[in-house]
Amino acid sequence: MASGELDPSSGVPLYRQIKDILRKEIAGGIADPQKPMTEEQLLSRFEVSRAPIRQALKELTDEGYVYRKQGKGTFPVTGARVHRPADIRPGALHQYLTESGLHPGSKVSGIERIEPPVRIRHRLGLDPHERLLHFTRLISVENEPLVEANVYIRAPEDFRPTVAELEDKGSAFELLERDYGITLDRAEHEAWATAADTDQAATFGVRAGSPLLVIETIFFTTGGLPAGWRSAVHQAEDFKYRFVTSR
């Protein structure tokens, strides 16, 4: 089957196949940002009923891949390979990327149990000299670096995940939930722009001083206790973070 064609025998719902095809075209810069994706055009292209077309466009809109102009149609959003919705559960970015068909890779290094810096200790309300599990993780999408994360996790002393376990699961919190029943309830984020230092420039393959996006996160358990801290650095043009506020 050629790329961009539907496979009715695959067992994958048609709307999901259409969504994945369009998402890849948008992320790959193939879709023309000046040309609307109309229902009529997509009906002709995919030769399906209107329902899967509408469902695919709805999910692409919800996830930030397209936007709608009143009276003009639905247009691709360019400039970001990954659009992170606001409703991803805490600690589940790797799983979201996998389910989105982006084939993420994960490289973990520097696993150790240490006392965190004073600033992080204060943010988490830790006792003096409390030691946390610390490691770094580099997440890649389509073999290109997307996120470099510096992680501190409050976990039992006998929680000693291996590099292979952390890379396979994509989140230490999944292992904590599996082995200890510790679950996350919410996360608080702060985001800001920064300029790449020498090490970051080497990691992302950009010039020193290039713009980067930093998202600092504190994770909380279902009991409201701080469970960990993460600083995630992204290439600014590759990652779009969607926020939702309510009254």
UniProtKB/TrEMBL annotation:
GO biological process, one term: negative regulation of DNA-templated transcription
Pfam families according to UniProt: GntR, UTRA
Organism: Crystallibacter crystallopoietes
Residue ranges of every copy of the HTH gntR-type domain listed in the record: 12-79
Source species, domain of life: Bacteria
Keyword Signal: no
SMART domains, sorted: HTH_GNTR (SM00345), UTRA (SM00866)
Gene Ontology molecular function, alphabetical: DNA binding; DNA-binding transcription factor activity
Record-given protein name: Transcriptional regulator, GntR family
InterPro entries documented for this protein: Bact_HTH_transcr_reg, Chorismate_lyase_/UTRA_dom_sf, Tscrpt_reg_HTH_GntR, UTRA, WH-like_DNA-bd_sf, WH_DNA-bd_sf
Record keywords, A-Z: DNA-binding, Transcription, Transcription regulation
